[in-house]
Amino acid sequence: MEAEVCKFERVFEVVFSSRFWKPFCKVLINTSMDINNLLNLKWSDVDLDEKLIKVNHKAFMLSDETVGALVNHYAFRQREQKRVRGKVSFIAYDDLVFGNEQGAVRSYKGLSHNFRKFLHRYGIQGVTLNCLKWLNHKTQRIKNKIKYNEQEYIEM
User: Which residues make beta-bridge pairs with 130?
Assistant: First the structure.
């Protein structure tokens, strides 16, 4: 178990140092959102002031760290849009948050491949995007179980 914790600490260190992977993985971990929904996420779905993402009639609260990562990602996309002299739109209301260099939807298969390849460069194997997605889900279940047990203990 301790080896797995160390492995994920290394994964976070590597992923959170990346301009693209940091905001993507922060949103993924923070929300446990379906990866395809994340790939199709538009700026119009994101409310940074309210720290909220609304997709498919669901609302996801964002942590301050995730909001910060998205703000930095937006600024980066602004610079990219200037670099291509407006030939591709990255930051309009209906643009994709994590679109490719042409502003189009990335493929799940390609994204997963690139993620594994990215981690492999740092000697990390066996970690997928779905592993990160379920981290928050498992953490919430553990927190709820602890909260439930504490409440049960208090009521006794």
Answer: none
